[in-house]
Amino acid sequence: MNADSQEGRPSLAEDQVGLVVEVFRMLADATRVQVLWALVDRELSVNDLAGYIGKPAPSVSQHLAKLRMARLVSTRRAGTTIYYSLENEHVRQLVVDAVHNAEHAGPGVPPHHRGDAVRELPAHRTGTAE
């Protein structure tokens, strides 16, 4: 395989590279990764997310604002409550793949290959609040 020939794969425009870098920068924070993982299969409010990941609601809210600005999460209002969910299927797949890739760093067969994962790849649901 010749690394110099990338026929069929155009180079990325600088502005697109910048957006990709921003996505990875958002993923370079443990709290944001926990927030995104919590949202893989459901939408949650700030308070629900805070309870789920064990962080104060104001801190979670700040992280959600950054994730929203990076277009990784979106919101839905129901009365006075705002629910957060992943922006799209690509974000969901990115988060799931990153977690599954991290599982390969440990010894033995990763949980997602054994079927006894604490949290297997969930079926994607939209429009549900828990």
Helix and strand arrangement:
Elements lengths: L13 H13 L3 H9 L5 E2 H8 L3 H13 L3 E6 L2 E6 L2 H15 L7 H4 L16
Helix pairs in contact: 3-4
Note down, in words, how this protein is organized:
With 130 residues, the chain is mainly α. Helix content is 48%, strand content 11%. The chain contains 6 helices and 3 strands. The chain has helices at residues 14-26, 30-38, 46-53, 57-69, 89-103, 111-114, and strands at 44-45, 73-78, 81-86. Strands 1-3-2 form a 3-stranded antiparallel β-sheet. A hairpin with a 2-residue loop joins strand 2 and strand 3. Helix 3 crosses helix 4 (57-69). The longest helix has 15 residues, at 89-103. It is globular, with a radius of gyration of 17 Å. The chain starts with 13 loop residues before the first helix and ends in a 16-residue tail after the last helix. Mean pLDDT is 85; it is low at 117-130.
**Number of alpha- plus pi-helical segments:** 6
Going across the major beta sheet, what is the strand order?
1-3-2
Spatial extent as radius of gyration? 17 Å
N-to-C series of helices and strands? HHEHHEEHH
Task: Determine the fraction of residues in helical runs and give it as a percent range.
Answer: 40-55%
Low-pLDDT windows of residues: 117-130
Mean pLDDT: 85
**Structural class of the helices, strands and pairings?**
mainly alpha
Oligomeric status of the shown chains?
Answer: single chain
The main β sheet shows up as: 3 strands, antiparallel
The count of strands amounts to 3
Beta-strand content estimate: 5-15%
Cα shape: globular
- State the end-to-end CA separation: 49 Å
